[in-house]
Amino acid sequence: MMKTLQDQLQLLSSTLVTLSKQLEMISTHMNAIPFSKIQAGFFTEENFKPEGRAGADNLAGLSENPFEVAIPVLETVYDIIRRNRRGTSVMDLREKTGFGPRQVSNAVYKLSQRGRIKSKGRGVYIKT
Question: Check: CATH 3.30.1490.20 for 35-127?
Answer without folding.
Answer: no
